[in-house]
Amino acid sequence: MPTTTSTPVYTASATSWGGRSGKVVTSDNKLELDLSIPAEMGGDNGPGTNPEQLFASGWAACFHNALKGVARQQKLDVADSAVTLTVNLVGGMATGFDFEVTIEAQLPGVDPETAHAALEAAHQVCPYSRATRGNIAVTLVVTDNEE
């Protein structure tokens, strides 16, 4: 694992109370969310979000920004692009849980081959992708670009 002695560009911090059925709050109080356990996991499917949704949201936004950076370098117009990240929690208590992720990108006006190459390049520079490489199965998909 690489180590760094660099000064952080930005630091984020959040605290959890009550685990999956509690709440999370960021250190700057800009994000305060109730958490609920989904029914599929034996929970009450309450009104709160869950760690998988938060993980998917953060990675989707980060990946989309990486994709926009790659697109700028390649002179691609991705103004109307969208990135959807789906997190599947697989496994169980006996074997342990793992994530499987699908990253879908819609890049209207960009041919599928170029779009897929841009996704691959973004996957190389996105901090979430880099942090999870080799630990999470990831599938990259270019969705219908004609919409």
UniProtKB/TrEMBL annotation:
InterPro entries: KH_dom-like_a/b, OHR, OsmC/Ohr_fam, OsmC/Ohrsf. Signal peptide: none annotated. This is Organic hydroperoxide resistance protein. Belongs to the OsmC/Ohr family. Pfam families: OsmC. It comes from Cryobacterium sinapicolor.
